[in-house]
Specification:
With about 80 residues, the chain is mostly helical. About 70% of the residues lie in helices and about 0% in strands. The chain has a domain of about 45 residues. The model has no long low-confidence stretch (mean pLDDT about 95). This is Phage protein.
Amino acid sequence: MQYEFEKYTGVKLNAEDMAYTTPALFAILAALVTGDDEEKQKELYELIDKVIKMNKGNRSETQIALAGQFAKMAISGKQ
């Protein structure tokens, strides 16, 4: 079986485009790791909040929050 992502060949890395994919990829991994375990989900959300606080005032603060929102949507299935 060939997965969809394996069909893309000869593609060159584009840093800007890759940056846009990061929240989606993070969401996939977060959902995979936490699954339906509410305790793991809570731990993940608390860690995201901690990282946001650690980056308060930095340009990455809002982007970390966005990645957290993507993760929560992927985990809960709600937008």
